[in-house]
Amino acid sequence: MSRRVVITGMGAITPIGKTVDAFWKSIVNGVSGIDVITAFDTSAYTTHIAAEVKDFEIGNLIDAKEAQRTDRFILFAVAAADEAIKHSRLDLTKEDLEKIGVVIGSGIGGLKSLETEHAKLLARGPSRVSPFLIPMMISDMASGRVSIAHGLKGPNYSVVSACASGSHAIGDAYIHIKAGMMDVAVTGGTESTITPVALSGFGNMKALSTRNEALGKACSPFDKKRDGFVMGEGAGVVVIEELEHAKARGATIYAELVGYGATGDAYHISHPAPEGEGAARSMKMALSSAGVQPTDIDYINAHGTSTPINDKYETQSIMSVFGEYAKQVNISSTKSMTGHLLGASGGVEFIASVLAIQNDIIPPTINYEDPDPECFLNYTPNEAVKKTLLYAMSNSFGFGGHNASLVVKKYEGV
């Protein structure tokens, strides 16, 4: 019998809530986390706004001295994983720790640490560079530190696939559980790259919104006014496990992960393939993996970055997969509220999809005021919708032509 995989715990650090409950309350109520950047002076930049995680403290999860030599993206992952494990009520003293793995993606890793230490190198010479730079910087250290913190000895690695990293991490963990390599996985994505270099790089390639005066309205997926994405930061981590393992320990099951698709565009370093061809194949693969038809999907959490080409092509890809039913299914981009969390976006949006199914509520796409005729689907504009949900799909697409789609099903107790 094929091993089934369920979601039993969730943890979130986001610009609109530093717990899962706070995050869910914010997205249901259409709260934006986008404001003027406070981390550094942006007066010389074309973009002055982002979705920062304000007043974040790691608390007693890591020793204070250790936290000072740990990059922010790692701290986000540690905090989100701790919430997810507690939420799952896993008693690690009773578990086979060799059967619990950690797969956490990050698109960029510790860029802030690299910038800081490079400045020291230039100003004061090589002897002043921190000996902790490499473990602060490398993307795999989020999963490594979570593994170390909890003694988890199963498969442990990072996925780096730009903005699809979090979704690929969850998909990989799902495959490992189905294959019997582990019974439980702590998985998702994390990112913290609201830094001078990232703002410069993304800004100079014209990927970012420059609607600085709009603040919370600057991220407007599928809207005619959209002009680029708004950077965000945070982490979304879930506990997924084999169904019988979850049932045996009396776990609360929030939903079932039933499908995963992953494809490559083989087209361009930053632009998606025309008409979202690669994204469409990812969605088809996920549907096939789940054994469902397009008409079974009740909600799509779109990649929806608020960039002109991405939103247009994602619309076209959904049409190509779902046909006329695409005009009926509810779609939303929660990035309209969180900004684009890059490698963390897949983890956070997977949690949004699970919560949508659990609560039978579809979060909105806020700032949808001036419909683009090329984006003509039901994007759940501006207000959440109460609707019975059985299946949801979460999409993530990344620079380099990386596509990932996850299908979640309401758990019905059988």
Strand and helix map with partners:
Layout: E1 5-13, H1 20-28, E2 35-36, E3 49-50, H2 64-68, H3 72-88, E4 100-105, H4 111-124, H5 133-137, H6 141-150, E5 156-157, H7 165-178, E6 184-191, H8 196-204, E7 234-242, H9 243-248, E8 255-264, H10 277-290, E9 299-301, H11 308-322, E10 330-332, H12 335-338, H13 345-359, E11 361-362, E12 385-386, E13 391-398, E14 402-409
Parallel strand pairs: 4-5, 4-6, 9-10, 9-13
Antiparallel strand pairs: 1-7, 1-8, 2-3, 6-7, 8-14, 11-12, 13-14
Helix pairs in contact: 3-6, 7-13, 10-11
Q: What features would you describe in this structure?
A:
- Helix content is 33%, strand content 18%.
- With 414 residues, the protein is of the alpha/beta class.
- Strands 5-4-6-7-1-8-14-13-9-10 form a ten-stranded mixed beta sheet, with helices on both faces.
- The longest helix is centred in the first third of the chain and has 17 residues, at 72-88.
- The two termini are 14 Å apart.
- The model has no long low-confidence stretch (mean pLDDT 97).
Keyword list:
414 residues; alpha/beta; ten-stranded mixed beta sheet; two-stranded antiparallel sheet
Task: Write a brief structural summary.
The protein is α/β, with parallel strands linked by helices. The protein has 13 helices and 14 strands.
Q: In what order do the strands lie side by side in the largest sheet?
A: 5-4-6-7-1-8-14-13-9-10
Q: Judging from the principal axes of the Cα atoms, what is the shape?
A: globular
The averaged pLDDT comes out at 97
The fraction of residues in strands falls at 15-25%
DSSP strand count: 14
- Count of helical segments? 13
Helix content: 25-40%
Largest sheet: 10 strands, mixed
Order of helices and strands: EHEEHHEHHHEHEHEHEHEHEHHEEEE
Cα(first) to Cα(last) distance is 14 Å
SSE class: alpha/beta
Uncertain segments: none
Q: Mind telling me the C-alpha Rg?
A: 20 Å
